[in-house]
From TrEMBL:
Gene Ontology molecular function terms on file: protein-N-terminal-alanine acetyltransferase activity
Keywords: Acyltransferase, Cytoplasm, Transferase
InterPro entries linked: AcTrfase_RimI/Ard1, Acyl_CoA_acyltransferase, Bact_Acetyltransf, GNAT_dom
Record function comment: Acetylates the N-terminal alanine of ribosomal protein bS18.
Domain annotation N-acetyltransferase: ranges: 5-153
Enzyme class: transferase
Name of this protein: [Ribosomal protein bS18]-alanine N-acetyltransferase
Compartment(s): Cytoplasm
Pfam family of the protein (one): Acetyltransf_1
Any single GO CC term annotated in Swiss-Prot or TrEMBL for this entry: cytoplasm
EC number: 2.3.1.266
Natural source organism: Pseudonocardia autotrophica
Length: 155
């Protein structure tokens, strides 16, 4: 696919498409509803969209959970349309989220399924390390999650 991908803000109008992608990507693990995306977008947190001429092909969200001087952020979600995976879109979305966190010098946390090797590898390449495990974290599947952390940047 040679189409240009742009990363920009996620809008309330994108909620239905995001929920559709959630159903494809996370069907067994309580996918977010369109309303959850609308709420997230209006929360004032960093929610991004990846778009091509075909429309929205990915999304990502970062919540700031504690402000400076000991800022912390949490990656809430990253999803890429299966037809567009392996084209660097997830990597680009994560990089943009981390730029937001780095501006605040925030430590960043996330959870990822223990069996999601591609995502865990992506996070490790961006400086995350496994710091714990959450048993039966995902519902209703009961899958375990690694808790990962990336120390703040900019010191």
């Amino acid at each position: 696919m040679s189409t240009t991908v742009t990363i920009g803000p996620l809008y309330r109008a994108d909620a239905e498409r995001c929920a559709e992608l959630e159903q494809l990507l996370f069907a067994g693990d309580d996918p977010w509803s369109a309303q959850a995306f609308r709420d997230a977008v209006t929360s004032g947190q960093a929610y991004l969209a990846a778009r091509t001429d075909a429309g929205l092909v990915g999304y990502a969200g970062l919540a700031i959970v504690a402000g400076p001087p000991q800022a912390e952020a949490e990656v809430h979600t990253i999803g890429v349309d299966p037809a567009w995976q392996r084209h660097g879109i997830g990597r680009a979305l994560l990089a943009k989220l981390l730029e937001v966190a780095d501006e605040l010098r925030a430590t960043v946390f996330l959870e990822v399924r223990t069996d999601n090797e591609p995502a865990r590898t992506l996070y490790e390449r961006h400086g995350f390390e496994i710091v714990g495990i959450r048993k039966r974290y995902y519902r209703p599947s009961g899958a375990d999650a690694h808790t990962m952390r990336r120390d703040r940047r900019g010191d």
